[in-house]
Amino acid sequence: MPRAGLTADRLVAAAADLADEAGDEAGYENVTLSALARRFNVKDASLYTHVRRLGDLRTRMALLAGGEMIDRIATAVEGRTGKDALAAFAGAYRDYALTHPGRYAATRIRLDEATVTDSPALRRTAEVTYGLLRAYGLEEPDLTDAVRLLRSSFHGYCALESAGAFGAPRDLEASWDRMIDALHLTLLNWPRRGAP
Fold first, then answer.
1. Nearest-angstrom CA–CA distance, 24 and 104
2. How does DSSP assign 71-109, residue by residue?
3. Confidence of residue 195 (pLDDT cuts 50, 70, 90)
4. What's the pTM value of the predicted model, to 2 decimals?
5. Residue 164 buriedness (CB in 10 A; 0-12 / 13-18 / 19+)
6. Cis bond upstream, residue 169 (ω within 30)
7. Residues 20-34, buried b or exposed e (16+ Cβ, 10 A)?
8. Which end of the chain is more exposed for a tag (fewer CB within 10 A), N or C?
9. CA angle (158, 29, 112) in 5-degree steps
C-alpha cells in the first residue's frame, strides 16, 4: 500500500533537490532510490509503487528540469529578436546550469524518442530553440547543426566555469559576452549549402 503523502511528483522533486545539493552524499550521480528512501525515512521497496527503477526516476528528473529550464529561457527571450534573443536565451541557460547543477546534469541524459515526443516541455524546448534560429534564416539541416553548435558552446562554457577550469585572469562575463557576439556573427553568416 502506498505511504500516505508519498507521490511520484514528490519523489522526483526531492530527487532533483538532492541532485542540486553539495556534499559527499549529494549531486546527480549520488541520487539513488536508497538515498531517496532515506530522505523520506521509508524502505526502498516503498518507492517502487511510484517509480519503477532508477532509470525511471532519472527520466522524470530530466523532464522536470527540462521544463523548468525552458520556462526560464522562454520568459527571457519573450519579445526579443536577433542578438538580444540569443543573449537572453544563453543567459537563462547559463543561470540555470550554474544555480541548479544537479537538475542541469539530469537534462543531459539521453531520452528515448517516445519520451521526447510525449513531453510538452521538450516539444516547447524545440519550438523556442528552433524559433530563435529560424529568425536567422536557417532551415534544416542547418537548424539541427546550429542547435548542436549552441548547445555545445553553452554546455562547454558552463561545465568549465562550474569546475573552476578557466584559469586566465580575463573576466568570465567579458568572455561570455564575446562568445555570444561570435555565435551571433556565426549565425548571421551561416555557410549556406549549394543546391544538390
1. 18
2. HHHHHHHTT--HHHHHHHHHHHHHHHHHH-HHHHHHHTS
3. very low
4. 0.90
5. exposed
6. no
7. beeeeebbbeebebe
8. C
9. 80
Query: What single DSSP character describes residue 29?
Result: G
Q: What is the pLDDT of residue 46?
A: 83
Question: Which residue bears the cell 555570444?
Answer: 180
Q: How far apart are the first and last CA of the chain?
A: 62
Residues belonging to the chain: 196
| Mean pLDDT, rounded, for 2-30 | 84
d(CA 127, CA 137): 15
Q: Chain centroid to CA 138: how far?
A: 23
Amino acid at 16: A
- Are residues 111 and 59 in contact, defined by beta-carbon separation less than 8 angstroms? yes
Q: Compute the radius of gyration of the chain from its Cα atoms.
A: 19
How far is it, in rounded angstroms, from Cα 108 to Cα 135?
26
Cell digits for 182? 561570435
pLDDT in tens, 97-109: 999 999 999 999 9
Question: At 119, is the secondary structure helix, strand, or coil?
Answer: coil
Q: pLDDT band at residue 188, thresholds of 50, 70 and 90? A: very high
